[in-house]
Input
Amino acid sequence: ELKVEQNPLFLSMQEGKNYTIYCNYSTTSDRLYWYRQDPGKSLESLFVLLSNGAVKQEGRLMASLDTKARLSTLHITAAVHDLSATYFCAVARTNFGNEKLTFGTGTRLTIIP
Amino acid sequence: SQTIHQWPATLVQPVGSPLSLECTVEGTSNPNLYWYRQAAGRGLQLLFYSVGIGQISSEVPQNLSASRPQDRQFILSSKKLLLSDSGFYLCAWSLRGTGEQYFGPGTRLTVT
Output
């Protein structure tokens, strides 16, 4: 059974600081996704990582994937308040040619002015 | 462009009552469709997925069921709701053979 763990579960950080969210998973996969969820809202796709060593950046967020270590990171640079949200990683598993996603527990990020 | 709709947006139902949540996708054909549930403050649990009309796979045993009567319509149902069915229900779609999923706005269900 595929298990996906994120840490930390809760993160409170000051504006302007840097931090990293970690996503570990238990079985082989070469595709990983990051989503953002604002309180009471649906999920918004942030990054799609499709191969070992993939790195994607959008604004103050950068995601990377190491399939050998079964680890993805989401790095936040010089945090600003509007990055406050819950971030989920999701690992793909293929079943008869169709992908299903297993989601991590989520990291609730709060940026303090 | 593709759009995904869910309704109702919120629902309050008594224990033992039936349930029907609807999800429709516009702007694409033959999508894979998914139902997830998110308990308060928790992650997402995949409930059902469908690769075509009438083809439903269940991920967890429960008192819920799903149906796909049309290519772009996915329905989540229950004959008798339990308190534990409360949560945020999200429908998602993906292109056949790819993994990235796109989520609808969700339905917040409270069972009283």
